[in-house]
Give the backbone structure.
Amino acid sequence: MLKQIINGRVLTPQGWLEGGSVVIEDNKIKAVKECNCLEEGAEIIDAKGCVVVPGGIEMHVHGGGGRDFMEGTEEAFRVAVDAHLQYGTTAIYPTLSSSTIPMIEKAVETCDKLMQEPDSPILGLHLEGPYFNPKQAGAQIPEWIKAPVAEEYEPLLEKSKCLKRWDEAPELPGSIDFIKCCCKHGVLPSIGHTRATYEDVHAANEAGMTHATHFYNAMPVVYKNREFKVAGTVESIFAEENMTVEMIADGIHVPPVMLRMIYQIKGVEKTALVTDSLACAATHGDAAFDPRVILEDGVCKLADRSALAGSIATMDRLIRTCVQQAGIPLEDACRMASETPAKIMGVYDRKGSLEAGKDADIIMFNDDLELTFVMQMGRIVRAD
């Protein structure tokens, strides 16, 4: 089945095509054209001057539509994924907060199964913990936080095909062995919920930890030890040139001026956008999976207001915030939502840009940066 998007401003790896078109055959992009010359027999989709950009790739998301991936059930996974599809996420890595091993195993089983379905938007499972610094627990369940336990993680990494990323605090004992084990099994180790020093960060980076979880959140900045300044985890990550970062671009977890600063320092190639959203995201009500969490000021907080707990952001909001509040060019914001996460997660050969042969994951925005269209693997999910 042929489809053709015409009359759009199309973002390609070479830049914008004004009045360009995208030809889709089944679930793949057949061609990206500089003109609107029509393909014979194609179903025409008129972009009406909207920007046509790659679909968002969500690297860090806990739930949506009122359901949380920690539930581990097929229903919870499907509801949450479908909710985010409506807001421009066309590929997703479901995320578990610090969990027990049985909870992880249940989610692994579900994720493995759903990934095998034709044209599934699920690309793998992301574990955020439980190997974290308890002093930086944030909204993580403190009873489950601990140092890495080889007898736990080695069997999981050995048998779980869907595991693609695992976050950990590199100052913990046994950290280097954990990082190397992740790398051995093709799982991205990421630094998070940490008080790592520069020495910790550098050693972890040398061992293969090349990504930072929700940068600036749950990690210290520069501080004083008596009369001397000490580089915090944030500055240490900035100093490691090959380290990529992700930022929760809701304008609250990281203020807009800091979003722009991260973008200026790390650049498009090393900065990804994530929602880190909870079950209450992508809903029309105030559904919350975790009774410890409240919704206030457009964000999730712990009920005692001691910490932010996660966002209610969706992919379209991340892009709008970067452009309208942080002053980041639209093309760069879109690349950070698609191309950069695709490269970080090793799927850029098939996702993350509008090019012939790649998956037909496509979204559109109007002049006000309101989402108007979502296509996932050639299937129209939303058309306003």
User: Anything to note?
Assistant: The chain has a mean pLDDT of 95. Residues 56-344 form a domain with the TIM Barrel fold (CATH 3.20.20.140). The first strand starts at residue 2 and ends at 12. Residues 101-115 form the longest helix (15 residues).
